[in-house]
Amino acid sequence: MTVEHLRFVGKRHPRVDALEAVTGSAKYTADMSFDQMLYAGILRSPYPHARILSIDAGKAMIPGVRAVLTPKDMPRIPFNSAWRGDFHLDQLPADEFLLTEEARFVGDKIMALAADDPAIIDEALQHVEVEYKVLPPVFSPEEALRPEAPKIHLNGNIAAKAAFNIGDVEEGFRESDHVFEGQYETQRVQHVPLETHGCIADFDYKEKKLTVWSSTQVPYNVRYVLSKALAMPTEKIRVVMPFVGGGFGSKDEMADEALCALLSMKTGRPVKSQYTRGEDMRATVSRHPSQIWLKTGVSKNGSLVAKQMKAVFNTGAYSTAGPSVMKVAGVRWATLYKAPNVSFEGIAVYTNSPVAGAFRGYGNPQSNFANEVHMDEIAAELGLDPIEFRLKNAVRAGDIDPVNRYQIPSCGLEECVRKGVERMGWGEKKGRRNGRGVGVAFNCHATGAKPAIPERSMAKVVIDGKGVIHVYSAAADIGQGSRTVFAQICAEELGIDIDKVRVHVGDTGTAPFDFGTYASRTTSIAGYAVKLAALDAKAKLLEKASRLLNINRSDLVISDGVITAKTGLGEKMDYHAVFGDSNNGEDVIIGMGEYEPPGNSLSFTAQFAEIEVNRETGRVKVLRCVTATDCGRAINPLGAEGQIHGGVAQGIGFALYEEMVVDDGVVLNPDFRDYKCLSPKEAPEIEAILVETIDPSGPYGAKGLGEPSLVSVAPAIANAVYDAIGVRICSLPITPEKVLKALCQTS
């Protein structure tokens, strides 16, 4: 079906929750309170590595403190806060406890309390006396991998290894006419969502049920981890997601939900945790710092013959999603450009540093930075056009993903490149070496996490007796606009105006199962489930109407909310009239949808950047970014362009400004005074180009969009720096100091 034949899908629709967001009526976890609610406080380790010998927690029981928990009060059940289901038990190590007896980073949780007022917490925590045995720390992967290094966990300092081989890479290098090697590094950065982590837990002793309100992007996953950590049946746990003010992966796992639950059980009252900005930056996950070595063999005609990657990811004190992030980095690197001989070796290493985890792009920004700077280096060394060299070796529709073995059903990369080249004015601007330069980088990114995760999504559509359509999905809207997309899909399938649709997301008590919002999956996978649920509701609605109109159901259609025969002849009726005039809204029609994609579709991006370098200060200024993304069908082009703008802005921060500065395990810049993000004043002109290839796996041909726009920004900027002044920067962020040092070395 072409976009011209669609009424709601493919149209630029304002967000259905915009009024709530801009007027302040949207309720976030921080806005919520309950009668007799208590506030949680956490005592955190001041040492990067220490064993807790004793805690005199009784001294914290000052007036207003209602309960204290120490490690000895905890169920000693190891877990991983990033688990999604039983399939993850073997993939992600169970290396965390709710409160630890051995602190592994500055900020590790060693005691919790509940108080009447947040103002009491700091005073109470200051009274606690803790005896530590300070242990030798290790802060870098190089230190941690030495045989004599102190063990951070009982099984050593390696969280996970991953490797795959295609063909014979050593033979491929021997057959290559040219072999290139390079080393690349990326830094630790924080998600810094506007809303910090928060949750409220309320345990009902009569029903033995736990309700948790959480600023999460994965409600069902939080329920699963709570069940494991508390040894509590999942059916006794309900997780409710209020409005969420951004996540970017940081809210992809459990934070303090279990501790608040235990404090609620102990006090019989609701307990709330709301992180300060400092806590959020010190104690929640960051992007993994990485060190990546690449070796590539190329033939005389510019074809890749062999390529090899060795990657070390610093996962910090606990693994969380580290093993998976590290492997995905290798998979995406292996997929974008074809070669008959491929080798990947990756390792996720524990250190006594802040914990790293899921972050928008999930390993792809690290490996793509290395790969796209490396490809640019090769093209320059061989005198090849950097775009033609990439396109010659890039994957295309019909090719097979070399690692996951899925066929790639759609690929609009060439169109992305063509449109990006034209809009950037690439030919006129490339190669001037006058302090201004342009750079390019490609990427491919997955839609969902299959086959690592058995992707499955369910949705429910309810038409009530008053004619209002309710969509229920556990796929979280964390600011990306999925409420609007779900409303568009539902209205399109039902043939009923979008103003009649109400979308309810993120409540395990009312919405059927969904893994949550991550991996650019929400529109494609959860949206498809909404489409199927709407189709099911439509079939039941028409079945009811057929009896009233005495027309076969197969001969009926709905258009603009009116049910009529396909021929246009005969009696008509408004869709809500099927419930009858005497109905009080009690009668309902329920449609259910369940979807699992057959494979894993890939989105593609061609990222262009124009920059200016001040040779005296080393400062890099981004002047313009053009981002062309193959996103399949854009369900809501307005929202899709917003996603691209946000991703590019975040990518510029990754490229130039952002870095968590950690010294002896202590985060030195845990607030916006010292942690530099891209400000609106510094934001360049950003142009988003949507290239629509219709992919069979998504609703109306949609593919993932949330992450690709960030992935290639940093290498495009780095390649533009080379174009401007002739120096290569192979580590992030691209600071003035690094630029000046590189200029000095080449002068």
Give the SSE layout.
Layout: H1 18-23, E1 38-44, E2 50-56, E3 65-69, E4 102-103, E5 109-115, H2 118-127, E6 129-134, H3 141-144, E7 158-166, H4 169-175, E8 178-186, E9 198-204, E10 209-214, H5 219-230, E11 237-240, H6 257-267, E12 271-274, H7 277-283, E13 290-298, E14 304-316, H8 322-336, E15 341-350, H9 364-382, H10 386-393, H11 413-424, H12 426-429, E16 436-446, E17 457-464, E18 469-473, H13 482-494, E19 501-505, H14 522-549, E20 556-559, E21 562-565, E22 573-574, E23 588-595, E24 602-613, E25 620-630, H15 637-657, E26 662-663, E27 666-667, E28 685-691, H16 708-711, H17 713-725, H18 736-746
Parallel strand pairs: 1-12, 10-11, 14-15, 18-19, 25-28
Antiparallel strand pairs: 1-5, 2-4, 2-6, 3-5, 7-15, 8-13, 9-10, 9-12, 13-14, 16-24, 17-18, 17-23, 20-21, 21-22, 24-25, 26-27
Helix pairs in contact: 8-9, 9-17, 13-14, 15-17
